[in-house]
Amino acid sequence: NNSSQLSSLPLHILLYVNGIYYIFYFLVTLAMIIYKSQVFSYPDDFLAPDLAVLFLMAILEVPRLYLGFKGNLTEAEAPLGLSLGLTVGSVVLCVYLLLWQTYVLWADVLLNAVLLSAYGLESGFKVTAIAAFIS
User: Fold this and answer.
1) What is the pTM (predicted TM-score) of this model?
2) Which of 3, 5, 10, 93 has its CA 20 to 30 A from that of 75?
3) Residues 109, 65, 121, CA angle at the centre, nearest 5°?
Protein backbone atom coordinates (compact mmCIF):
# COMPACT_ATOMS: atom_id res chain seq x y z
CA ASN A 1 0.00 0.00 0.00
CA ASN A 2 1.75 3.13 -1.25
CA SER A 3 0.00 6.05 0.46
CA SER A 4 2.72 8.65 0.05
CA GLN A 5 1.44 12.18 -0.42
CA LEU A 6 2.99 13.90 -3.42
CA SER A 7 1.06 17.21 -3.36
CA SER A 8 3.18 20.20 -2.40
CA LEU A 9 2.33 22.19 0.73
CA PRO A 10 4.65 25.10 -0.23
CA LEU A 11 2.91 25.27 -3.64
CA HIS A 12 -0.52 25.22 -1.99
CA ILE A 13 0.44 28.04 0.41
CA LEU A 14 1.99 30.07 -2.42
CA LEU A 15 -1.10 29.66 -4.63
CA TYR A 16 -3.24 30.87 -1.72
CA VAL A 17 -0.97 33.86 -1.00
CA ASN A 18 -0.81 34.69 -4.73
CA GLY A 19 -4.62 34.68 -4.89
CA ILE A 20 -4.81 37.18 -2.03
CA TYR A 21 -1.93 39.27 -3.42
CA TYR A 22 -3.48 39.35 -6.90
CA ILE A 23 -6.71 40.89 -5.54
CA PHE A 24 -4.58 43.61 -3.90
CA TYR A 25 -2.46 43.96 -7.08
CA PHE A 26 -5.53 44.30 -9.32
CA LEU A 27 -7.25 46.91 -7.14
CA VAL A 28 -4.10 49.01 -6.64
CA THR A 29 -3.10 48.82 -10.32
CA LEU A 30 -6.64 49.76 -11.38
CA ALA A 31 -6.62 52.70 -8.95
CA MET A 32 -3.22 53.81 -10.26
CA ILE A 33 -4.39 53.65 -13.90
CA ILE A 34 -7.40 55.79 -12.95
CA TYR A 35 -5.10 58.15 -11.02
CA LYS A 36 -2.66 58.40 -13.94
CA SER A 37 -5.53 59.08 -16.38
CA GLN A 38 -6.60 62.03 -14.19
CA VAL A 39 -3.17 63.47 -13.28
CA PHE A 40 -1.21 62.92 -16.50
CA SER A 41 -2.22 63.64 -20.08
CA TYR A 42 -3.15 60.02 -20.78
CA PRO A 43 -3.89 59.57 -24.51
CA ASP A 44 -7.34 57.95 -24.84
CA ASP A 45 -6.08 55.33 -27.29
CA PHE A 46 -3.48 54.22 -24.68
CA LEU A 47 -5.85 53.99 -21.72
CA ALA A 48 -7.91 51.14 -23.23
CA PRO A 49 -4.97 48.75 -23.88
CA ASP A 50 -3.57 49.28 -20.36
CA LEU A 51 -6.99 48.53 -18.85
CA ALA A 52 -7.53 45.61 -21.24
CA VAL A 53 -4.22 44.01 -20.17
CA LEU A 54 -5.14 44.37 -16.49
CA PHE A 55 -8.60 42.83 -16.99
CA LEU A 56 -7.27 40.05 -19.25
CA MET A 57 -4.74 39.26 -16.54
CA ALA A 58 -7.54 39.07 -13.94
CA ILE A 59 -9.53 36.73 -16.21
CA LEU A 60 -6.45 34.48 -16.62
CA GLU A 61 -5.76 34.48 -12.89
CA VAL A 62 -8.96 32.59 -11.97
CA PRO A 63 -8.35 29.42 -14.03
CA ARG A 64 -4.59 29.71 -13.37
CA LEU A 65 -5.11 29.48 -9.61
CA TYR A 66 -7.99 26.98 -9.85
CA LEU A 67 -6.00 24.57 -12.03
CA GLY A 68 -2.96 25.02 -9.79
CA PHE A 69 -4.94 24.10 -6.66
CA LYS A 70 -6.77 21.26 -8.42
CA GLY A 71 -3.61 19.78 -9.97
CA ASN A 72 -1.71 19.97 -6.71
CA LEU A 73 -4.48 18.50 -4.52
CA THR A 74 -5.41 15.70 -6.92
CA GLU A 75 -1.73 15.08 -7.75
CA ALA A 76 -2.53 15.39 -11.47
CA GLU A 77 0.10 16.78 -13.80
CA ALA A 78 -2.34 17.92 -16.56
CA PRO A 79 -4.14 20.69 -14.60
CA LEU A 80 -0.83 21.73 -13.05
CA GLY A 81 0.75 21.90 -16.51
CA LEU A 82 -2.16 23.99 -17.80
CA SER A 83 -1.78 26.29 -14.80
CA LEU A 84 1.92 26.60 -15.61
CA GLY A 85 1.02 27.53 -19.20
CA LEU A 86 -1.41 30.19 -17.99
CA THR A 87 1.33 31.48 -15.67
CA VAL A 88 3.48 32.12 -18.75
CA GLY A 89 0.64 34.24 -20.17
CA SER A 90 0.30 36.11 -16.88
CA VAL A 91 4.05 36.77 -16.81
CA VAL A 92 3.88 38.32 -20.31
CA LEU A 93 0.99 40.59 -19.26
CA CYS A 94 2.80 41.48 -16.03
CA VAL A 95 5.93 42.41 -18.02
CA TYR A 96 3.75 44.61 -20.25
CA LEU A 97 2.47 46.47 -17.18
CA LEU A 98 6.02 46.70 -15.83
CA LEU A 99 7.73 47.96 -19.00
CA TRP A 100 5.28 49.06 -21.69
CA GLN A 101 2.20 50.60 -20.13
CA THR A 102 1.80 54.31 -20.85
CA TYR A 103 3.09 55.58 -17.49
CA VAL A 104 5.13 53.38 -15.15
CA LEU A 105 5.40 54.67 -11.58
CA TRP A 106 7.74 53.31 -8.88
CA ALA A 107 4.69 51.64 -7.31
CA ASP A 108 4.05 49.81 -10.62
CA VAL A 109 7.64 48.56 -10.58
CA LEU A 110 7.29 47.35 -6.97
CA LEU A 111 3.89 45.66 -7.47
CA ASN A 112 4.98 43.92 -10.69
CA ALA A 113 8.37 42.87 -9.29
CA VAL A 114 6.64 41.16 -6.34
CA LEU A 115 4.12 39.49 -8.68
CA LEU A 116 6.84 38.30 -11.09
CA SER A 117 8.87 36.92 -8.16
CA ALA A 118 5.80 35.05 -6.88
CA TYR A 119 5.09 33.68 -10.39
CA GLY A 120 8.71 32.52 -10.65
CA LEU A 121 8.69 30.81 -7.26
CA GLU A 122 5.29 29.25 -7.94
CA SER A 123 6.45 27.97 -11.35
CA GLY A 124 9.45 26.30 -9.73
CA PHE A 125 7.17 24.54 -7.24
CA LYS A 126 4.80 23.51 -10.06
CA VAL A 127 7.62 21.98 -12.12
CA THR A 128 8.88 20.14 -9.02
CA ALA A 129 5.36 18.87 -8.22
CA ILE A 130 4.77 17.74 -11.82
CA ALA A 131 8.09 15.85 -11.72
CA ALA A 132 7.02 14.16 -8.45
CA PHE A 133 3.61 13.19 -9.87
CA ILE A 134 5.11 11.70 -13.05
CA SER A 135 7.83 9.66 -11.32
Assistant:
1) 0.93
2) 93
3) 50
